[in-house]
Structure formats: structure tokens, C-alpha cells
Amino acid sequence: MRRMEWKGEAVVGTGSVLMVSTSGTHTFSKQNQDSIQLLAGLGVEGDAHLGKEVKHRSRVAQDPTQPNLRQVHLIHAELFDELQAAGFSVSAGQMGENITTRGVDLLGLPTGARLYIGDAAIVEVTGLRNPCAQLDRFQPGLMKTVLDRDEQGNLIRKAGIMGIVLSGGQVRPGDQIRVEWSPEPHRPLERV
Question: Less packed terminus of the chain by CB within 10 Å, N or C?
Fold first, then answer.
């Protein structure tokens, strides 16, 4: 995956949308679509995670009034390439993401980075997806493969990022993604 070039407050470079997916129920995988509509402050129209308050089942059980920092789930297609090389059969939408990207270092973004997608949509990055046991129910051994350790032994979560919709718009496969980093000091992504 190519690294984006740092230039002051923004990152110069683009990636693209490979696929868009949604599910109106809390299913693990989402169905691929011709397009999805992002709604400002809410998420993906018709998706089970749409709303201002948290919709993720385990978080709703803790406190249903928490803000929804998981309105949009994005995964980089490069992860699927890695998983396929390790013997897994995974394609866009199957790990529950709404937007599958290519050419954007999603895991290298700081909290608060903005993704300008297509003509109008803007998604602000809130954090990392925390992989759960559903991955192993989908394909045994998958969860271990989307977790790693860096040189210092810190856990690396590779199952994508989460964001909130700042500006709505239609998103389709083939749309360009432009990245704008948040102002310094940059805060690394943490699980949300």
C-alpha cells in the first residue's frame, strides 16, 4: 500500500472506493450495493448502525445513550489481499464494513482525520474496529490473523476503522477518496 505524503495540515494523495455494503439488520456480513447514501450525523441510510446513539449491541447493553462513533465502518482491500494469501476466502462486505477502500493507509491515519469521498461525503475517523469472536465464527482462525504485535509488543488491530458522517452524500464503487489529516498533535487510533 502506498503511503500518503505529509504536507502541513493535509495529506496529499488519493485512494478509491472498491465496494460499498449495507445491512438493515445486525448481521456479520453486509450486502454489496451499487451505492450507499451517507447521512450527516447518522451514518449509512438503511444500515443497522444508523443513528446518533450507539447501535452496536454490546455497547447498547452498557449504555444506549453513548454517542455513535461507529456510524461507518471502513476496511482496506489490502487486508483482504493479506487474508487471501494466508488461505482465507474473504471479500468486500463480508467482514461487516460499509466501505471497502484501496490505496488509503486507513490504519496509519490519526483520530480526527477526514475522508472526502466522492462528490460530497465527508467521514471523520473516530478509531479502530475492535475485532471480535464473530470473525472466528465466520472463518476459524480469522480473528488471530487480523491481530498482530509491533516491535514493542503492542497490539495492532487490522480489522478496519470507524467514523462518523460530517457531510452526507452518495458513495459508489470507483469514487475517489481524499485524505485530510487532523491538526497536530496527532492522536493515534484507539479502539471504539
Answer: N
CA distance 170 to 40: 11
Containing 167, the helix (H) or strand (E) segment is: strand 161-167
Which position has the grid cell 438503511? 46
Q: Which residues pair with 32 in a beta bridge?
A: 21
Percent of the chain with pLDDT over 90: 83
Residues whose CB falls within 8 Å of the CB of residue 189, separated by 6 or more in sequence, listed in order: 107, 109, 110, 111, 125, 127, 128, 161
Domains of the chain plus CATH, in order, are 5-180 (2.40.33.20)
> What mean pLDDT is predicted for residues 127-144?
93
Say which residues have a Cβ less than 8 Å from residue 39's Cβ, sequence separation at least 6. Answer: 45, 50, 165, 168
Global confidence as pTM? 0.92
Give ∠ CA 40-41-47 in degrees, rounded to 5. 85
pLDDT exceeds cutoff 70 at 133: yes
Contact between residue 37 and residue 168 where contact means Cβ atoms under 8 Å apart: yes
Closest CA to 168 of 22, 21, 37: 37
What is the residue type of 104? V
46-74 residue pLDDT tens = 999 999 998 887 777 788 899 999 999 99
Whether the per-residue pLDDT at 13 is higher than 80: the answer is: no
